[in-house]
Specification:
The complex is a heterodimer of chains A (526) and B (276). The relative contact order of chain A is 0.17. In chain A, helix 10 runs antiparallel to helix 12 and helix 14 runs antiparallel to helix 15. Chain A is globular. Chain A is α+β, with helices and mostly antiparallel strands. In chain A, the strands form 6 sheets. In chain A, strands 8-9-10-1-11-20-12 form a 7-stranded mixed beta sheet, sandwiched between helices. Chain A has a 5-stranded mixed beta sheet with strand order 16-15-17-13-18. Chain A has a 4-stranded antiparallel beta sheet with strand order 4-5-7-6, covered by helices on one side. Chain A contains 16 helices and 22 strands. The longest helix of chain A has 18 residues. Chain B is mainly alpha-helical and 276 residues long. Chain B has 10 helices and no strands. The longest helix of chain B has 37 residues. The two termini of chain B are 15 Å apart. The mean pLDDT of chain B is 87. The chains are: A alpha+beta (526), B mainly alpha (276). At the A-B interface, helix 2, helix 7, helix 10, helix 12 and strand 16 of A face helix 6, helix 8 and helix 10 of B.
Amino acid sequence: MNKDINRPNADPTLIGRRDLLKTGLMMGTGMVLAGVGLRPALADEPKRGGTLRVGLGAAGAKSSLNPFISTGDMDFAVAQSIFDRLTDFDKDGNLYNKLADDFTHNSEGNIWKIKLKKGVVWHDGAPFTAKDVAYTIQYILNSDNKADAYPNLAPLLESKGVRALDASTVEIELKQPYALLPQVLGSKVMFLIKDGTTDFDKPIGTGPFKFVSWSRGQRVTLARSDNYRTAGQPYLDGVEFIAINDPTARMNALVAGQVDAVAQLDGSLARLIEANPALVLLRSKSGATTDQFMMTNLKPFTDVKVRQAFRLMIDRQQLLDNALSGYGRIGNDLHCITDPDYASEIPQRTYDPDQAKSLLKQAGYDNSQSITLYTSDAAPGMQASATLIANQAKKIGVNIELMVVPPDSYYSGPNFKKTQMGSSDWGQHTLESQFGQGYARGAYWNEPDWTSDAFDKWVSKARTTFDAPKRREYYVEAQKVLWNEGAYIIWGFRDLLDASSAKVKNIVPSTQRNLGYYQFEGVYLA
Amino acid sequence: MSTSVLRLTLAKPAARIALVLVLIIVALATLGPYFSPYAFDEIVGAPFAPITQEHWLGTDFLGRDTFSRFLYGGRTVLVVALSATVAAYIVAVPLGIYSGLRRGPLDVVLIAISDVIYALPPAIFLLVLLASTGPSLPTVIVGIVILHSPRIFRIVRLITMDISKNEYVEAAFARGESWTAICFLDILPNVLTPVTADFGVRLCGSIILYASLSYLGLGLPPPAADWGLMISENRIGITISPWIAIAPALAIAVFSVAVNVLTDSFARSVGRSKEI
C-alpha cells in the first residue's frame, strides 16, 4: 500500500491484487513464525550479564520519568527499577522494611521516628540520608508537584511536620494519631527521591538499575547500578522497557523473540503459553481489578438507586468466565480483597435483574436513554467486560453504548471521567492506599468522583486506631458504605498473567503487580 | 448496458467466477442474519472455543458464536461502502460535467480543491476526521465521499471536455438547447459507461477503507457484528482460533478482488463492444 502511494498517479484508495497477495503471504509467514519457539537453555545458578527486554503496555505520549506521576505500566515499571521505598510489600502482600530499618512512635501515635538502613547509596555515589526522605515527603506534599501520593499524605501531615534528626533518623509529626504510617509509606506511589531533585530528565534513585536513556512512550534503557546495596545483584547488565501497547503485538513480540518478557496478558492466551515449552506463564492471584465506574456527578448516577441497580444487573460469573477466561475471582464491589481488613463478611452481591429493574423503576430511570461507557483494551478484560456488561444491561432494557478508544490514550484522553460510565483497572493495593488514592475527596484517581461523609468518618476512625481488631471493625463499616452506595462495579479480581521466555529465570510472581512487581534485581538470563 | 457488453464481460471464466463470488458475498451479507443460528451478541460458550457441530467457526473472544457474527457482519461493510460510493458519484458527476462543460473560475476552484484532497493520504485523512468529530458511521461515509469525489470529478470532467468537442454537442449549442438538456441528453449518457466501469474500483476502495477503519475501532462500536471489527476484536486469539479472523478477512478480500475482476472485465468489454 505504501509503495502504491509513492508511485506517480497511483490512487491510494485502491488496493491492487498483487498487494493483496503480498499481504496474505506476509500474514501467512507471520503466523507460521508465531508458532516457532525458542528452546530453553539449561541453567542452574544465577548468571551475570545480558539485557532483559520487557514488553509493556499503557505507554503513551504523556509517559513520564517522574515516579510520582505514573501514566501506566511502563512508567511504573521504570520507577520500580530506579527508585526504592521506605517499606514495601512482598510477593504475598506482607509489609516489610525496605530502606527503613525501624519505626517507633510516641504513646499518642502522632509522632513517628524512622530509622534508616545504613550503606544505601544513590546511583551517583552520594549516601542516602534522612534529608532525602524529608525532602521526598515535602516534595509530595507540595500540591504544585501533582504527585500521585499527595492524597495519601496530605491529610496526615504538613510539610513542616517532617524533619531529619540525624543522617539516619527521620521524625514525622502527624496532624493526628495515625496507625498505618509504615503501610502508607509502602504505597506504590511512594518512591524516594534525592534531596534537591526538581526534574526527572535523568532520574537518580537507589534502586537496582540506573537510568541510561529513553524515548518518550517508546523505550527506556536502564543499566545495572554498581552501587546497589545487595552484593552481586542485579545480575542483569541492564533492562530495556519497550512499549507495545497492543496485547496481541506484545504476545507476538515474545513468541518472535523480540522481547524476553511481557506483562498483562489476556487470559485467553494463557493456554497458548502453557502449551509452548519455550515460554513460561507467570500467574499470580491478586487484588488487581478491571472494573467499571459510574460518574456520580452525571445523571443518572447521581441517584444511588441507579448505581445499586447497575451493580445488580451484572452477571459476575459470566464476566469472570468470558472476559477473564476464568483467571480470577468474583468481586463484591469492594477493592483490596487481599488486605486483611477486607470485609469478607459482607454478603456476596449476586445477579438479580428483577431487583435491578425494580430499583430503576423506583429511581424513575428512563429506559429510552443511552448510557455511554468509555472503555479500551488498556487492561486485560477491560473492553471485553465492558462489552459483556452492555450486553447484560440490554436484558433489562438498559441501553449502554461503548465509546472505545486506543489503549495509549485511554487514561490521558479528553473523555476520561467525562462520560457517564468508564472502565478502570487497579493494581493490588492495601485498603489504606486504595482509600487514599481512589476514594479521597478530590483525588484525581477518585474516578467516579464519589464522596460520602459516613465513609470518611469510618476511615478516619480506622486510621487513628492502633488496636488492630478495632481498626478492622471501622474499616468494615467503611466498606459497608461502599458496598451500599459506592460507584465502582467491581465484578472480579483478575489474576496477574505475564509470560517470559524460558531463558529468563527467577521472576517471582507477586500479588502486588505484574512480572514479579517489576523487581528484576534477582532475575537472570540462562 | 447492452446484451453484447454483458456477454463480453462474462466471456472469461475469471469474470464468471468473480460474479458468482460477488453474488455469494452479497447474499451472505444481506440474507445471512436470517439464517444465523444464534443472536450476534449471545454468549454461547467459553472464549475461543474450537469448531464444533454447534459452532461452525468456534466462539470468539467473548464466547459468542463466530459463525452467527460472520453472517451478521457483512451488512455494514456493504451498506457503508455502497452508500459512500454512490454518494460520491452523486456529488462528483454533476460537478465534473459542469466543470468540463462550462469551465471558467468555478472549474479552477474545483480543480484546486480536488488537488488538495488528492494530496491527502486517505487513511490519515479519515483518522484525523474521525478523531476530531468522533467515530460514527455518517462521518465515515462523509469521509469516504470526500476522498472519492475528486477522483470521480476528474474522470467525469475529462470525459465531458472530450465529448463537448464533438460536433453533435456543438450543434446542440447552436440549436439553442439549454445547458441542462445538453448535460442530460448529450453528456450524461456518454459519461455513464466509463463511470460504471470506474464504480467497481471505487466500491472496492470503499470496502477496504471501511474495513480498515472498522479494524481500528472507528466503525461500529462493540458489540456490533462487523467483519472489520471481528478481525480486530479477535486478533488476540489468532494463534488459537485463526479462522475467527480469517473468515471475515477472507470475505472482505474475496469480495474486493471479485468486484475488481468483474469491473476490469466490464471496462474491457465496453471498449471491445464499441469496436464491434
